[in-house]
Amino acid sequence: MKPRITLVVACAAVLLAAHAATPAGARTGPVQLGAAVYTDAFLSDPDPRYRATLAGYDSITAETAMKIGIVQPRRGAFDFTAADAMVAFSEAHGQGVFGHTLTWCADSTLPGWLRNGSWTRETLLAVLEEHVTRVVTHFRGRVAAWDVVNEALNDDGTRRDCLWKRVIGDDWIAQAFRFARSADPAAKLFYNEVRADFASPKYDATVNLVRELRLGGAPVDGAGLQYHLTDRMPTQEQVQGAIRGLGDLGVEVHISELDVPVWRFGGTPERRFARQAEVYRAVAGACQAEPACVRITTWGFTDRYTWRLPWQESLPLPFDSEYRPKPSWSAMQEALTPPPAPEPEPSPAPTAEPPPAQPPPAPAAASAAAAPPAASPSPPPLSLTVKLRRQRLRTWLARRALAVRLQLEGTGSAQVRLVARVRGRVIARMRAVLSSGRRSLRIELTPVAVRALRRASGARVVLAAVATDAGRSAGAVSRVRAG
Ligand code: XIL
Q1: Model confidence over 411-424: pLDDT tens digits?
Q2: pTM for this one?
Q3: For a tag on the chain, would you pick the N or C end, based on fewer CB atoms within 10 A?
Q4: Which domains are present in the chain?
């Protein structure tokens, strides 16, 4: 008997140790970099730079297109036109979609029929169930994660007043999570909060709320901290502390709505943007350092379209209004991508393989055309082409690397960032400073990426590359089936 007991105890110890080493909410691949999509720009701005820059992100979130006032403007009349277009865009570019938001505890955001209706607990619960169920079901299998409840707390940590809470009661939150889980059991369900970004009564209340919801059996898989910064700029340690406090509950955490206005930073524009970049670096570095942190989404990506008004003064995003990458963009890249691994391979022996294809039509980031007119003689445009070598899935798995051909022209040297994704999931990332010319690279695959690829037989591997030098950037995309 004794050996058996010893064995059971030993197994339990191993299981516990494994559990402690890999908390339930820990990410299983690189941090995703996301951007929120502004509906008017996405649907109506004829400038191709908007979509081209958006294509360089790993995931997208609708800034407003999935909110209740847009998808259910009249009771029972659902309109997914804008949201469908965004999801289709993400699928065409190998991106993930984070859904925002099924509910929001702010009456001003509700459509008139809901705000002005007269409701009982039963009738409003029925509305909540119908809304959550219809929206989540519509996007089932295409939207991998949802904000189920947005901003349900006051700054002092008490529950915020709103129609849902007034009429249904405090359990409206748990109910919303249950309805979402039933509609798509595979989707990750998040609670999202504003101004709870670092130690404060509201931060503590956010942690308590998530803990209590889970203890009560509500299916909460993740928590989002917004980081719409204004006065206080957090340090990396503060952000890490905030992520860890939630991650310790066993949930995924993400930075859900980052933007950093430069209003309060003094000095020249260069000085302000340098300071802004340090904040982006701190937040991205914190996410990279904390295993619970799965994603950073910036609330928009170009200063041309931001909700932080007046936009001419806030300039809070990583691309300027002409889609040129700002120091904040490079700072995030550096924080999220481990330093160079890119030993250029010894020149490949001549092969019969055809030369790289023509540059693809959709660059992954702002095109060189975005550069301002330069004094003559004008420098040659920065240009980049990439080609993921068409190899068998078996070869990728055996070599634990993707082979890439890359050609950079029009610069002395540029920072090149490469991201490979399968079904919206980042499987590999690399950054290097390269000089002009043509070369072969190997992008190492982590064991996690190898597992993801093994399951991805037949799926498309999308490689997005962006080259940046002194305020110019050029992008390229290559797609290959994992066959
Ligand atoms: C904002 C959008 O950016 C604006 O365009 C819209 O007018 C109002 O909502 N917290 C959230 C987001 O969770 O949904 C908000 O987005 C910003 C604050």
Answers
A1: 988 888 888 888 77
A2: 0.79
A3: N
A4: 26-336 (3.20.20.80), 368-481 (2.60.40.2550)
